[in-house]
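Subject: sequence -> structure tokens, single chain

Hey, anyone have a minute? Need the predicted structure for the following. Not urgent.
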Amino acid sequence: MPKSAKKAQHYFLHAAMKGDMQSQVTVAGYYHFSVDGNKLEAYAWYKVAEDNGSEYAKEMAEKIYNEFSDDDKVKAHEKSELFLAQYGKSSLN
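Reply:
Had a minute. Here:
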């Protein structure tokens, strides 16, 4: 990955962690659509962005969730609950 792309990824992740909904969607998209994508991580970030009001994130979270195995659904729920506690709108107040 080019240095500038890594730097941008760093800043998007930082902004996502601070509560910026668009950055949360961007980070989720990175995990979702990258070649070695981590769909569990993508799902969790989409759920956080959904919690912050993104309809797109809600649709994407549902799409990914429906692709998971039963075991991965459990893992996805656990990871999203953790992320919501850390980065959801209620955790930022």
